[in-house]
Amino acid sequence: MFIGNMDQLRQIIEDAVSARLSQHLTQLQQEIAEEVASQVQSLLDKMSAESSAAPQTSDSTQRLNAAVASIQEATAQADILKALLEGIAHFTARAALFVVRGTTLAGWQSRGFAEDNMRGASVDGAQGLAARAIKDRAPVCAVAAEFDANFSQRNGTPWDGNATLFPLVVRDKVAALIYCDAGVTSGTDSDYSAIEVLTRYACLWLEHAAARKPAGASADVAIPAQAAVVAEPAESAPREAPAVAAAPAASAAPQASLDGVSAEEQELHRKAKRFAKLLVDEIKLYNQAKVAEGRQSREIYKLLREDIEKSRATYEKRYSGTPVASAAYFNEEVVRILADNDRALLGSDFPG
Predict the structure, then answer these.
(1) Position 256 in a domain
(2) The pTM is what?
(3) Hey, which end of the chain has fewer CB within 10 Å, N or C?
(4) Cα distance between residue 12 and residue 167, in whole Å
(5) Phi-psi region of 208 (alpha: psi -120 to 50; beta: other; left: phi over 0)
């Protein structure tokens, strides 16, 4: 039902959140909330209109919209996760959140199980379906016994025999897994496309919550200790949340002339430049120490080659086949944002 729109929805959410991460923290929450809500609502309204002949699809769209809004209203990480579980409960019979503690999955909360409180549930995360979800960082589905035979026996095997796991990837780390199944009553269906949308949105909102923490605070997902049931040895200290600087001044780099260009193409140029800025802002946001080191040694590109080229590939995938391909906006933003408009600081090996 949502498959044809998921990529579009996913990109809208990612762009909207990334667009605000580099701005001043005092404005961050309100602006992200307004922009994400507006853009997600726009797509959901479109999906609802397209499915006007199918009331049940419209109802599902409204439930998805409400779930997104509930996640968006939460600010604390635990509240975001609770809102996520509540939203998922509208699209599947049973769902449970497991916190990743080393190689162990510790039950946190659930919806639809006989005992809502998952206190006491513990699953080996180093094998089976859980290990696949953590390794692939993507949803996986298989027979429920592959998740954990004891868990299935204790709670009842799903009527269709299957279970699906959705990893919560926050800052390149799988912080938790969402377990979903169709329940024990025959004929109950799950909408896993909607669940994936909610899970991805929650991951982005968790990153936003982590970015808002004061410098020196943990940037990782911190589910309340009392909710976790398995005490694991403390891991290495989590990295500090990067300091977020105010939005940089307007570009002083030369820009492509738009004289004689149609309004539609001018808008494409504007979007391409904005997207390039978002990508490079993100590089700087998560690599401030390397940027500072690179400026001093005049070899920024050498230190950040992998990040720069990965972002360049993302930019070119979107705009290489368009009329703005020759505008070199990505290179301009690299010079402006990372090298403070001094091309020499990037080093002689910078290809731009």
Answers:
(1) no
(2) 0.52
(3) C
(4) 20
(5) alpha
Yes or no: say if 168 and 178 are a contact pair by the CB < 8 Å rule.
Answer: yes
**CA 14 to each of CA 18, 206, 207: distance values in angstroms, whole numbers, following the listed order:** 6, 13, 11
Instruction: Please check whether residue 255 lies inside any domain of the structure.
Output: no
Number of domains in the chain: 2
| Tens-level pLDDT at each residue, the chain (352 residues) | 444 456 666 666 666 655 555 444 445 555 555 555 555 555 555 555 544 444 444 577 788 888 888 888 888 888 899 999 999 999 999 999 999 998 999 998 999 987 655 767 889 999 999 999 999 888 999 999 999 988 888 899 999 999 999 999 887 789 999 999 999 988 888 898 889 889 988 988 887 777 665 544 554 555 544 333 322 323 333 333 322 223 333 333 334 445 566 788 888 888 888 888 888 888 887 788 899 999 999 999 999 999 999 999 988 988 888 888 888 899 999 999 999 999 999 999 998 7
Cα separation, 105 vs 223, whole angstroms: 13
Q: Are 89 and 111 in contact (CB under 8 A)?
A: yes
Distance from C-alpha of 92 to C-alpha of 189, rounded to nearest angstrom: 7
Residue 67 is part of which domain span? 3-227
- Two tokens, residue 218: 């943990």
Are 221 and 339 part of one and the same domain? Answer: no
Domain boundary among 206, 227, 248: 227
What stretches of the chain adopt beta strand conformation (E)?
Answer: 94-101, 104-111, 122-124, 140-143, 162-170, 173-181
**Same domain, yes or no, for 176 and 306?**
no
- Judged by DSSP in three states, 251 sits in coil
